[in-house]
């Protein structure tokens, strides 16, 4: 059942991420053509600032999920309702704080950046985008907590997929019809309300005994402050770069960063497909105290995840600059072709993605308190290094800082999980890293042609890079760990047989 649900989550998440990737690549190009780099940089900066403000609600979802694993497994509806009521109450409180931060942002942001855009335009843009963020923070998150804890992430994926498709189609249509930027942003905000209605309808139909209005069990998620400290690093690491760039370098430079970040953000989402829903699965195993099952399952997952991660980022290393050169062709208000920026994005993305399996274990085991201070130190060091280096390296500074702090924190995550959760030596993960680093050396020494002048020639290059990289990565990893490869194949075959029986 765990494997079946995990695979179902992965499949639904795969569809969603592919649609988000497609939409994320398509819409910014229309924005750049219609409104220019400055407006694109403004929208990217606003979204990053609002991401910062989500710190107000950090820790609630993670702590609530951890608290719900046991009552859901035991079908204790009273305890489940108490936790959900507390979750709702906390999200309402943080939603109020978020709203105050939004008002402060509206009043100050137009006057701390250098731009030719009017203050009234910037304020309206912040307000419209902020409305959608408030709906997510206050109303949607309480439903997602229940669905994630109950391993029904695929429902979240379905509702989000509908919203993304509608937003993409309507936004492009409105851009082609020469509607204003503010109208396009309003369309995006309205999709949050659609997602809310769809999720609310599903919860009422499939969880008839669930009640968010009972007496809240506030003590059940008292670990939210530990989870807050634990999550704050990730929030700052993800959202600080564009914020720092927009203030110290300008909105056009923020647009350059956002285009590369769009590509690598899409790549991160593709990689995260292979971790979707697994926190609940591992949480269930840990709660059941099945240590042998945990170690064996995690070993197989780690084996697959490393292959997928190195494969994706190796392909990106070769393809990113040809892609950006074609994507920004005809946009001449600032230079987008920065090879060093592409390499640094690969380094940062790889470093961050490699920690995800261990982050999943920490969250599944509820080990927030033990990790929160290290995460806070990472966040502080990241900000300090970025602010020091931005004067000398400009847009590159945030990536240099991110790589240094990210590498250190990822190593510490690996050490912690092996010592305190898996209780096994580090030799397997070290071997896996070395094997995949050999793959990196092999691929980087292959003389791929990168002089691309059309999307067709880029596609030819992409097919060649994907095939060669796949063969190198899979061959090295399978040979280096035959047992994990066999177990992975066995699990996939078992799922295929179960699926065939169910269809019959």
From TrEMBL:
Provide the transmembrane region boundaries. 7-29, 49-69, 90-113, 119-143, 155-175, 181-198, 227-247, 259-283, 304-324, 336-361, 373-390, 396-417, 429-449, 461-482
Does Transmembrane count among this protein's keywords?
Answer: yes
Query: Topology relative to the membrane, per the entry?
Result: Multi-pass membrane protein
Q: Where is this protein found?
A: Cell membrane
* Signal sequence coordinates: none
Q: Which UniProt keywords apply?
A: Cell membrane, Membrane, Transmembrane, Transmembrane helix
Its recorded name reads Membrane protein involved in the export of O-antigen and teichoic acid
This protein's species is: Robertmurraya mangrovi
